[in-house]
Amino acid sequence: MLVVFNPVAGRRRAAALWKVLDLLVENGVKVEVAETQHAGHATMLAREGVALGEMMVVAAGGDGTIAEVANGLIGSHTAMGVIPLGTANVLAKEYGLSTSARGIASALAYKRTRLLWPGLARVNGREQLFVQMLGLGFDGAVVQGIQPLLKRAIGRGAYVWQSLWESMAYGFPCVRVNIDGVAHEAASVVVSKGRLYGGPYMLAPAAKPEAPGFQVALFEQPGTLPALRAGAALPLGLLPRCPGVRLLAARHVGFESTGQIPAQADGDRMAGTPFEVCDAAAPISLIVG
After folding, report:
1. Strand partners, 254
2. Radius of gyration, alpha carbons of the chain
């Protein structure tokens, strides 16, 4: 079993990782750990694992690390395990994965799987996989503005703080989006593979992460008050019914903009504004226990 670990998670989360690994080793599982050194390295390590014939590659980190590992496994028969060590761990919550050391170790040993069908964004001449969501506009500005030290110190509270700041500082330029051939405009857009957003909070009840396609959330009203209203609705489970929020099913999403619109994928900033989102070429097998 190859475990791809993102050391940016910090010492506390590294300790959680080793609790899982100790349990696996105690039960006779051979484990190899590879630490990522830069963005994209997890994809390279996952591909090396596939080439070496690994039947499972485990992503130990947050949703961004999971997406990178998934990118390295697309088109192979290698399954993906998850040791959730991130701030929000949205994918783990989406699939009901355990967060206890014993529960994670048991799931990895039992190897029961479900499909996960990632999305694919095209940006600046390259392709980027995402497993949970991609956001443009206000959503992207929040993720891009977060300071890593603050995120490590207060976790999801950093998103709340940054959202308050961006609600006043962000200019809310119009995002032009084409959904399956129909043009729309919004202040912010979230293309979601899963039902959840920002942790355990409901955004897209009709989303099916194991199947092709997306749910697209259009936040149609710009400005501070609509942004704060949506932020208040999120933890109450009311965001899908919030005024100014519209949910549409999609298979292909295109974006047009006259300038750079901040974007994020799985909670990590994107280098550039994507111009197209579609399904990845194939699903992968996710270990769920």
Report:
1. 178, 276
2. 18
CATH superfamily, domain at 2-111: Probable inorganic polyphosphate/atp-NAD kinase; domain 1 (3.40.50.10330)
Whole-number Å distance between alpha carbons of 141 and 263: 7
Task: Give the torsion sign (CA, 74, 78, 81, 85).
Answer: negative
Interval 92-129: pLDDT, tens = 999 999 999 999 999 999 889 999 999 999 998 899 99
- Taking a C-beta distance cutoff of 8 angstroms, is the pair 250, 214 a contact? yes
Strand partners, 3: 33, 58
Alpha helices in the chain (DSSP H): 11-26, 41-51, 63-73, 90-94, 101-110, 138-145, 148-154, 157-169, 224-233
Cα–Cα distances in Å, from 160 out to 88, 142, 146, 227, 228? 12, 9, 10, 12, 10
Please state, in angstroms and rounded to a whole number, the distance separating the CA atoms of residues 235 and 255: 28
Fold that domain 130-281 belongs to in CATH: Tumour Suppressor Smad4 (2.60.200)
Domain ranges of the chain: 2-111, 130-281
**Residue 9: CA atoms inside 13 Å, Cβ hemisphere, count?**
28
pLDDT tens digit sequence for 52-82:
999 999 999 999 999 999 999 999 999 999 9
